[in-house]
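Dear colleagues,

As part of the handover before I leave the project, I'm documenting each prediction I ran so the next person doesn't have to rerun anything. This entry is a single chain, and its sequence is reproduced below.
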Amino acid sequence: MNTLNDYQKVAHESVDQLFKEVDQLKQKGQFIKEDKKQMFEQKLADLNQKKEALRTKYNQLSSASGQASEELKNGFEQAKGALTTAWKEAKEEFVS
């Protein structure tokens, strides 16, 4: 990444893609067996919390400039990693 602007663009694309994947997982939840519905709903609640945390970090990053940008990048990457991990776990557990 050459500039903060470049990083912000890549971050935006990764957020869009990850949010799309979470939404697709929600759609597949329609086909979850009844005995797993409650667990799936709990996973979705966790995903939604992580999604909102990532949205907050992304918004902070989008308005960043100067020295704070490295700290904001790290926070964004951590939030993105947490959502990605939670999404992968839910997908492995509930989608065949």
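Helices lie at 4-28, 34-62, 68-94. Residues 4-94 form a domain with the Four Helix Bundle (Hemerythrin (Met), subunit A) fold (CATH 1.20.120).

All the best with the project,
I.
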